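I am still getting used to backbone structure tokens and would like to learn alongside you. Please make up or recall a protein chain and show it to me in full. Would you write everything just below, so we can both look at the same thing?
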Amino acid sequence: MTERVQVLVVGAGLGGLTASLFLAREGVEVLTVERHPGTSVHPRAAGQNWRTMELFHWAGIDHEVLAASPRTGLRITVATSLAGRVLHRIAEDGSEFDVSASTTIPFGMAGQDVVEPILLAHAEKAGARVRFRTELTELTQDDDGVTATLRHRDSGEETVVRADYVVAADGGRSGIRRRLGIGTTGPDALSHCLGVVFDADLGDRVQPGLADLFYLQHPDFTAALVNTDVPNRYVFAPDYHPDRGESPADFPHDRLVAMIRTATDLPGLAPEIVWTGSWEVAARLADRFSTGRVFLVGDAAKVTPPTGGMGGNTAIGDGADIAWKLAAVLRGDAGPALLDTYEAERKPIARMIIDTSLHNMKQRMNPGLDVSGLTKAEDPLGIQLGFRYRSTAVLPEGPDDGERVEDVQAPTGRPGFRAPVLESTVDLLGQSWVLLCAADGTRWRPAAADIAAELGIRLDCHVVDGDAFASRYGLAAGGASLVRPDGMVAWRSREPAADPAGELWRVLTAVLSR
């Protein structure tokens, strides 16, 4: 017997669970499968940037994520050791990042091990079904859907699932990506790292209340060290070198303890090692983000070095993006061509993040890294809040200046950029298409209601008074901005329109591929 679902999500990491949550919130029948026995138990991918927290706010989980971590700030230091010579201080405590012109939402510092259970709980509460210890063994697709064979890893029981679409969130070594014949570009092994989770009291070597991240360029090793959400628990990640004949087996307990003592400048420290593992640091970008009815998200679409903390946040952004687009198509709000905008919008973001992370890696960890041939490093705040989409789901205005990001301290409200999240707009966004009108914009309301009814979509319309709103959104009195369900500006009329209904019909049929 074949099981029928609208969307099958393969992988229950940050990207897959975000897609599951946002799909379920839209009433989509979603089944999520994960080959591992549960969510991540290790504090990887810590930190939620402002854009991620906006998405979490609209999903109703931001306060829970914030409360999950005692760390409320961020310090980033490049040094020889925790008490050694400071080579570069990237952030003092996070307060120097002024994003108040772009968002009112705070960033979070929770680890992946606490965020994934929150996503899982809310996805299931919204109606998503999630099965662990379940792997995909076969995948075929045709013009009408996708057929997948799933196998429970303990019992061996197989289930055939027929889905309208598949979201492949199965990690950097994505089996689905390989099945689809999608290649990748970029180096597989920039470096090799050990992961060591240990418990110890480091005293004043770290700052309480902060996520305290150190990149260590010690004469004997290169490593990262960071605290976690668990008091007195840390992650130590030194490089090892297969080209010199090294392997993880060459780092027994006593050697790791000695390295931790050297890194912390605490020769008498007795760390309790909780877990060890190893991984490759890579920088790979999928040649395509989709084939037919299957879409790659998170590490299946791109793998980026951890220098910059953008990998997990990008996975969350991918999951939310494909979710609202799939929901719109499945509801009949949009034509199938809307799904083509997923790659058009998210692949350039992935390229920008990979290249900027490589520039960061050179500065923080590997001064000899060759970054020639990469695109330029972008401002990290611009990447997080000032990024730009170019696709058929955005109707640009004026000539394209070619820039990938804008200044978050002076947001423009232009189509293709985030709608500034102000106190007056934060709870108006993120649930549907919304038309935000400046003062004297009441003429848009009946037009919005008529066009929404004619197209059969939800289109909220709000008049927002105040100079701050008009200035940040670039609107004169009577102007209006059309904002997508993901909080991105799709189009705006800076001045009052002579025919509001005609304008909205033209714009919405275009951006929805109707």
Summary: The chain is about 30% helix and 25% strand.
